[in-house]
Amino acid sequence: YENPWTVPNVLSMARMGLAPVLGYLIVEENFNVALGVFVLAGVTDLLDGFIARNWANQKSALGSALDPLADKILISVLYVSLTCANLIPVSLTSMIILRDVALIAAVFYVRYKTLSPPRTFSRYFNPCYATAQLKPTFISKLIFLAASLAAPVFNYVDSIYLQTLWCITAFTTISSAYSYYHYGRKTVQVINNK
User: Fold this and answer.
1) Residue 189 pairs with which residues in a beta bridge?
2) pTM to 2 decimals?
3) How far apart are alpha carbons 82 and 63 in whole angstroms?
4) Cis peptide leading into 118, omega within 30 of 0?
5) Neighbours of 193 (CB within 10 A)
6) How far is 135 from 185, CA to CA, in rounded Å?
7) Which of 6, 22, 52, 114 could form a disulfide with 131 if both were Cys (CB 3.0 to 4.6 A apart)?
């Protein structure tokens, strides 16, 4: 049982809250402000990781799941909204969303399997009962998303370099999906509560 209200966890929740704001700004084609909100979300990501690594009382098993979840939500919203704004192809976004849905389903399954009896609804969704720690592989899509979001701001929407990034992102998406499948046991570490 651990305290869920650590500074890194609050920063991760703030990042989740910024996701719909960012999506709205992109769909409304307010790219300058959207780029600023994206940078702010990136700062919260850097800060929560820095604080969790340097202060032992701020590190938590919940944080190990909440941080990548906040990243997944932010990245998913970015992909969908950038696709709606015609800055990313639909096929690439579909591939990434499907991979993330499969990963989230796997996390829910691991949570169920690692929660000690009685497995009640309230215990399952109580973040204070830490049963597993997520150690995701990190093949970053942030450079691609930043480049796509900045494209209309800096006038390079039709650039061959941006299209090359689409291909690289498709390849890394397939690679990371394989990595999660193949190295799944290394990605999620079960916490022994003896």
Assistant:
1) 133
2) 0.73
3) 28
4) yes
5) 10
6) 10
7) 114
